[in-house]
Amino acid sequence: MSEEQLYHVDRSDRVLGRVSRREAHVRGLLHRAGCVVICHHDGRPFMARRSMDKAFFPGHWDFPCSFHVAWGESYDEAAKRELREETGIEASPEPVGGVLVDETPDHLLVHVYKLVHVGPIRLDPKEAASGSFVTPAVLEDRLLHEATTSWFAPAWRLLRRDARQ
Questions:
Q1: Which domains does the chain have, with CATH numbers?
Q2: Residues 93-136: pLDDT tens digits?
Q3: Coil, strand, or helix at residue 136?
Q4: Can you list the alpha helix ranges (DSSP code H) found in 5-151?
């Protein structure tokens, strides 16, 4: 099986070419990614603890659906695909906006999505070890005192800012 191909982009999201996932990480090349924040109808976000088998940020807190955008697909297509693969949810999440994460080990343009969902969430054990809906206060406390992925805090801040508008 060939290695996953990604979009190598500049800070304005202009495509510079195609790059393998491995090369993007080894060379620190900016590439497209995304995450879906799943919220209960009462506003509680779902937090997932990443699998210890993950290459980056094992055991860190994250949203239950974080992904790279594969070459040939749009951000929206990637969000729907990954949501189905990582949580078992068939839905079209709502785009919220984008954040730049440009620090080692990640160099990402992350599109953030939101989905209000009250049904079952079936976490892929290769991706997440556990997860649950938490209050925003619990999430904020974990941000301060526990390990999270590099995109978690900027994505959460964007979502909070969007909710206040």
A1: 5-164 (3.90.79.10)
A2: 999 999 999 887 789 999 999 999 988 999 999 999 999 999 99
A3: helix
A4: 21-27, 75-87, 136-145
Phi, psi of 159 (to 5 degrees): -65, -45
CA-to-CA dists, residue 31 to 20, 28, 119, 129, 165, angstroms: 10, 9, 32, 26, 29
Write the burial class of residue 154 (CB in 10 Å: 0-12 exposed, 13-18 middle, 19+ buried).
middle
What's the predicted TM-score (pTM) here? Answer: 0.92
Task: Please name the residues in contact with 99: beta carbons below 8 A apart, sequence gap of 6 or more.
Answer: 109, 110, 112, 151, 154, 155, 157, 158
56-94 confidence digits (pLDDT tens): 888 999 999 999 999 999 999 999 999 999 999 999 999
What does the alpha-carbon distance between residue 24 and residue 1 come to, in Å, rounded to a whole number?
A: 18
Pairing verdict, β 106-116 and 94-103:
antiparallel
